[in-house]
Amino acid sequence: MDLQRTLLIGAFALLSFMLLTEWVAFKEARTTASQATATRLLNGTDATANLLPELPAVEAGAVATGNEDLPSAPQSVDDAEPATVETGAAPEQRIVFVRTDVVQLAIDLAGGDIVELALPEHLENIDQPDQPFVLLEQNERRTYVAQSGLIGPDGIDRETRARFTAAAQNYELAPGQDTLVIDLVWDNEGPVSITKRFTLHRGDYLLDVSYIVANGGSERWQGNLFGQIKRDNSKDPTADTSGMGLKPFLGAAITQPDERFTKFSFKDMKEEPFREQLPGGWIAMIQHYFLSAWIPNPDQSHNYSTRVTPGGFNIAGFTSPTLVLDPGQQGSVAAQFYAGPKDQYRLEKISPYLELSVDYGWLWWIAQPLFWLLTRIHDLLGNWGLSIIALTVLIKAAFFKLSATSYRSMANMRRVAPKMQDIREQFADDKTKQSQAMMELYRKEKINPMGGCLPVLVQMPVFIALYWVLMESVELRHAPFFLWIDDLSVMDPYFVLPLLMGASMWFMQKLNPAPPDPMQAKIMQWLPVIFTFFFLWFPAGLVLYWVVNNLLSMAQQYVITKQIEKSAAKAKA
What we know:
- The strands form 3 sheets. The chain has a 10-stranded mixed β-sheet with strand order 9-3-4-5-6-7-13-20-19-16. A 9-stranded antiparallel β-sheet has the order 8-10-11-12-21-18-17-14-15.
- By secondary structure, the protein is of the alpha+beta class.
- The chain is elongated.
- Helix 4 crosses helix 9 (454-472) and helix 10 packs antiparallel against helix 11.
- The protein contains 12 helices and 21 strands.
């Protein structure tokens, strides 16, 4: 059996199996709930019922640093009466609504938690331009909220969530205004006054959350800032939008000094809760295209943890060092919270290694340069579809000589195919002599039987890396191309590109020598059909790349084959 053909068929069979597995996963994943309706509001609160460890003594007015044992964020979850808003009715007094040019927030005055966050620049569905994508929400469909508070000996969120009041029910970033500040005042008549402040900025998904504490009492005040992301086990609403059953990672992630990017699935969080005191850093909840992340003070060490509550909620959060205020002193403690798209160039400016949440897998060292090149091309062309075509041309040019070696090998194999068939027939009953005759033919004709496989294998890492670039980049979500393709991240609605891909694959087969083995020949004949079937559900951007690559390969292979056939004809004459 021809070794080259065997390897190629094995590679195709393996890829077909992988595609079949993804398609089955896709069928199982198509159970996502319908779009949420109206405003998503609070459905429950957290409270701390556990005893906190004794905190070390520190100087008054200071923030403790070092490796002291910090208390964890609230451990128990108590359900509370949900806040509701009826359409057309007066707004529920418990909710404050905030709007900037890129985010829409709903903040619950019970705890000051962000219980809804929508992204007007990213749509829930491309067919509904007035419906922004909702990342955080708490309703019958999903629980995914960002919580923060003060715990410790004098914290206001130790046993029940603190209650706040706001000066207004609605806040909006005005034209020409770059910063929007929302102050929530702790509803308390005691000597200690606390203000929870949200600061939002124009064009930015990063917001500041700070607590301003004024100790007007006669005793020392001590408290710890905590921030956490609370999510249930509902599916990622963007995980199957590609239409091919892709299952991107859904879970928590953190950075550590000895490991830049560590992921925790919900199963990991339940079986092995994480708790570690780390300098600076961040902790996030990631999904396909989007993430939310707490970024505490980078100059301090914080207690990071993941866990699953008895109620089944997945918690990823941090606790900061102790803020200590003597009577008459005022101080503050703060953290940043990001909720938005996985824009890796913005994320790398926010905190080190946060951009690694755009997970390109083990081939990231190839994928990153490809993504950089793709974005530079887009800056020039302004269309992601054209950018994919241009990138494909550049990649093909980079491997031009390597591909030419492969195509020359296949063309030569096609040229000597009749002689190889004669050898098989002559030594049909003696495999040893058949192999010896084949090797002698290869030496005489100066043919390397592996010449067609090795160049293809060398290029495979680049193709796989580009695959992940196209699948992971939020920039391609809802990105239009031309005519009927208005979203490169989902399948072609009319299957034009998959059919073109299948046709190009069929024509490429005609340029290659037919396998001498009848079974191999039948398998090769069915491959274009099988691949076309699977590519029906592939994202249009990925199929576009494959079609352009096939067309370029076919043109190069056709020219090389004709050159070799002419040379052979002249030599024979």
